[in-house]
User: Fold this.
Amino acid sequence: MTELTHAQWQAIHRLLLAVYASEDLDEVRRLALEGAAGLVPHTKSFFDLGASRGDRMQFFSPISLNMTEEELRRYYSCYQASDYTGWLFRPGETLVYRDSQVVSDALREDTLIYRNWMEPMGIYYGLGCSLCWGGRLYGSLTLFRGRAAGDFTDAEFAVLEVLAAHLSLHFGKLWPGGLRPRAEKEAGENLLIERYSLTAREYEVLQKVCGGAANKEIAAALFISENTVKKHVNSVFRKLGVASRAQLLSRVYEER
Assistant:
């Protein structure tokens, strides 16, 4: 097993403290990208979200600190389906990989994704990971650098292994029901409202309850009394056929 230096562990520790302190999806990803830049030298990187149903995997909503929107758009619209690293991914299983472990240099240089997307950006080597927890796919983090910089080292691979494990855990704990594209998420929310005949206010209260807020916190956030909150909570319980907040969370995750 590759041993990391004390300085590397200190940098990883600082990054993970910042990651675990955040519950914002985009901020967690931004922190991971910034931290990875200091731990694993690279020129291009992106962090997307993912979801899986059975053997089908979907990646969406990428963010990057060093790639243009056009570069990201071209990958997802033209080359994602033919990306040779996709052969490795398994739904529900966290994976760390180097491109050079997937295909030989000669074979990679002959692919469309390399000739038409990677080479024009001056990138040659890739290091990436999928993020999974509890059998769910949450996304992937991918780093690239040019040929002159050399392939990613065993130590850099080990750094990403540590980050992948902790990011997977953090995503799984914060979003145990998994993630979905925004359009699909909104459609699921509308279906929940229609199926159980929830009012707009009841749905607001349901969201707060699912977020772990107490009645007093919900009242303050929505500028209503605690008694009114209790009435809405009881109505939501009745409409969804549950008797506790734990049962409500379970029912909502099942529906979504």
Summary: The mean pLDDT is 91. The longest strand covers residues 44-53. Residues 154-174 form the longest helix (21 residues).
